[in-house]
């Protein structure tokens, strides 16, 4: 289980030097520095080749890429030329403002002559701007292949400022594929309107041993049998400040599917400061994670993810058979037959584990028979969690269940065959659920939580008269869901700490209602 402490963020001040000494005031030191730089292996720069694409035609023969000759460097030609440049030379391919349609159909091959773009060595492919440089498969009737594939163990490809779209490949292909042992890094890249309903990874697929990282990127409006947005098999995946939305999978993982076909060590998938919205599937509308996975959702906003296809329909936002950490995250909206926010169950390999910390689950369960959290044979800890506007908060069975410092507005089913523990600090409206908790529970007339609002990740802020305020004597978590500091003692139950000056902004400021105002110093 997680510790009741969160890591202290490293501040800019902590990283700054305490003093500064100029090398210019010490000629001997300056000479020594120059000598060290000259002799250091790191200072011996690799050769670099810059290739500038100068035509939108998909011409395999336009691979000379001479700056003096016009129209002799197509996108396909530049990649072919780059594939033949020996390592460790660095290669950068630059695009201009245009659509780059892929039009050369032919037999399936991996030499970049027909179909998808085959990248066989490490390189960087840069567009001019995300929405102004577009690699286009042409949709139905266009390219009969995926858009791009990264090949080779140790190959690392960076894509920047691009859109890849309208790939409708055969059933066994996907828009972008990362091969075994290869790595893909995407920065400000969109993958959209692609995929095949007959197979997985409509937008992006990572093969066993491969890896992918997405930064400020978007995966949206893709379709697939599973993992319509992203499918990873035995490979790490990292998303930061990215959007996964409006992807539709027939079976599982509308947004992301994490499969573990090969077993072995758990693979880690980390999604941070990202937005998963309106993804749809049969299980795991937002994310589906298998037994050999460790899923981290940190600082995210999951909204309106649904499971509406097929008979089971479990886990509107997340379905998992492995380990899940949800921290500083809000889950709201959605639809499922069970576990509208989170559904965890034993997949037959180890006990699933859920750590839900400093997070908000709100407005996901409107049916008295369908819980926001559905936990079967799971080791679970809820720590500083706010659950509001859910008709039914929790169903837990045959599990170890610890809950502390949390707020519950909805009901729960009797805890069946479950060992329950608590460090106290919980508040709930349903006496049959929460008053029996070890370490304290309390039925209160109102939790005094405001409507969902806030910044990038919306939260519920306690009112000044809420029993959640100063409900915990201590020790307290160092921060709340928003990364605001909590006091060491006398802190608030739930995911959000009410700060002294926040009352000023809760009421109608312009209307002159001073009832919620505060004059306390920050």
Structure description:
There is one protein chain. The chain has about 525 residues and is mainly beta. A 12-stranded parallel beta barrel has the order 10-13-17-21-25-29-32-30-26-22-18-14. It has a 12-stranded parallel beta sheet with strand order 4-7-9-12-16-20-24-28-31-33-35-38. Strands 11-15-19 form a 3-stranded parallel beta sheet, with no helix packed on it. A hairpin with a 3-residue loop joins strand 41 and strand 42. The chain is elongated. The two termini are about 35 Å apart. Residues about 1-45 and about 505-520 have low confidence and may be disordered.
Give the helix/strand layout:
Blueprint: H1 12-15, H2 27-39, E1 48-52, H3 75-83, E2 90-94, E3 98-101, E4 117-119, E5 123-126, E6 133-136, E7 148-150, E8 156-165, E9 176-178, E10 183-192, E11 195-196, E12 204-206, E13 211-215, E14 218-220, E15 223-226, E16 230-233, E17 237-240, E18 243-245, E19 248-252, E20 256-259, E21 267-272, E22 275-277, E23 280-281, E24 287-289, E25 293-298, E26 301-303, E27 306-307, E28 318-320, E29 323-327, E30 330-332, E31 342-344, E32 353-362, E33 373-376, E34 379-388, E35 392-397, E36 400-404, E37 407-408, E38 411-412, E39 419-421, E40 427-428, H4 431-434, E41 453-454, E42 458-459
Parallel strand pairs: 1-2, 2-5, 3-6, 4-7, 5-8, 6-8, 7-9, 8-10, 9-12, 10-13, 10-14, 11-15, 12-16, 13-17, 14-18, 15-19, 16-20, 17-21, 18-22, 20-24, 21-25, 22-26, 23-27, 24-28, 25-29, 26-30, 28-31, 29-32, 30-32, 31-33, 32-34, 33-35, 34-36, 34-37, 35-38, 36-39, 37-40
Antiparallel strand pairs: 41-42
């Amino acid at each position: 289980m997680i510790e009741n402490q969160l890591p202290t963020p490293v501040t800019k001040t902590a990283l700054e030097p305490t003093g500064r000494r100029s090398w210019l005031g010490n000629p001997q030191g300056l000479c020594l520095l120059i000598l060290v730089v000259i002799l250091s292996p790191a200072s011996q720069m690799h050769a670099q080749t810059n290739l500038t694409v100068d035509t939108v035609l998909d011409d395999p023969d336009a691979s000379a890429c001479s700056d003096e000759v016009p129209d002799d460097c197509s996108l396909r030609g530049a990649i072919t030329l780059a594939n033949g440049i020996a390592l460790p030379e660095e290669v950068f391919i630059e695009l201009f403002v245009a659509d780059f349609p892929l039009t050369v159909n032919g037999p399936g091959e991996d030499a970049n002559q027909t179909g998808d773009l085959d990248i066989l060595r490490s390189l960087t492919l840069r567009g001019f701007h995300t929405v102004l440089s577009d690699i286009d498969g042409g949709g139905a009737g266009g390219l009969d292949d995926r858009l791009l594939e990264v090949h080779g163990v140790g190959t690392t490809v960076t894509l920047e400022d691009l859109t890849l779209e309208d790939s409708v490949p055969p059933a066994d292909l996907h828009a972008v594929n990362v091969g075994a042992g290869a790595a893909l890094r995407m920065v400000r890249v969109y993958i959209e309107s692609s995929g095949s309903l007959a197979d997985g990874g409509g937008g992006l697929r990572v093969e066993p041993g491969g890896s992918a990282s997405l930064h400020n990127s978007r995966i949206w409006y893709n379709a697939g049998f599973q993992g319509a947005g992203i499918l990873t098999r035995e490979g790490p995946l990292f998303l930061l400040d990215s959007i996964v939305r409006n992807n539709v999978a027939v079976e599982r993982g509308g947004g992301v599917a994490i499969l573990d076909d090969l077993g072995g060590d758990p693979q880690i998938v980390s999604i941070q400061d990202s937005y998963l919205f309106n993804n749809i599937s049969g299980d795991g509308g937002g994310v589906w994670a298998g037994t050999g996975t460790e899923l981290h959702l940190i600082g995210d906003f999951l909204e309106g993810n649904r499971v509406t296809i097929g008979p089971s329909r479990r886990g509107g936002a997340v379905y998992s058979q492995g380990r899940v950490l949800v921290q500083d995250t809000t889950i709201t909206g959605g639809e499922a037959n069970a576990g509208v926010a989170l559904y965890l169950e034993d997949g037959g390999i180890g006990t699933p584990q859920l750590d839900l910390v400093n997070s908000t689950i709100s407005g996901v369960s409107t049916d008295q028979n369908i819980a926001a959290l559905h936990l079967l044979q799971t080791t679970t800890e809820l720590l500083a969690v706010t659950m509001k506007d859910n008709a039914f908060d929790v169903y837990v069975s045959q599990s170890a269940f610890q809950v502390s410092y949390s707020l519950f507005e909805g009901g729960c089913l009797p805890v069946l065959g479950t060992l329950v523990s608590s460090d106290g600090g919980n508040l709930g409206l349903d006496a049959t659920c929460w008053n029996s908790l070890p370490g304290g529970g309390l039925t209160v007339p109102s939790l005094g939580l405001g409507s969902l609002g806030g910044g990038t990740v919306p939260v519920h802020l306690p009112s000044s008269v809420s029993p959640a305020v100063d409900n915990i004597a201590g020790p307290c978590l160092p921060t709340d869901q928003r990364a605001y500091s909590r006091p060491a003692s006398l802190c608030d139950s739930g995911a959000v700490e009410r700060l002294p000056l926040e009352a000023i902004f809760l009421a109608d400021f312009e209307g002159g209602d001073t009832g919620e105002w505060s004059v306390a110093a920050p």
